[in-house]
Amino acid sequence: MDTNLVIEGFKFMALGMGTVFAFLTVMIICMNIMSYIIHKFFPEPQANADATSANAQKDNKKIIAAITAAIAHHRQG
Description:
Blueprint (H helix, E strand, L loop, with lengths): L4 H37 L7 H28 L1
């Protein structure tokens, strides 16, 4: 019996690549469904915009002060 090993190799390669492609496709679909379900039943809380901007300005002032102190300390020593 004469078998062409190259053709058999391509058949196995196509079977393996097809299996991996099908698995990854099913996995992506399942992850999208899970994401939809999680976002539907557990939405992210909406923060108050006014309080957030006030806290951000306070945090920015603290960060600027820390950077300024670090630069001054670096220049001294």
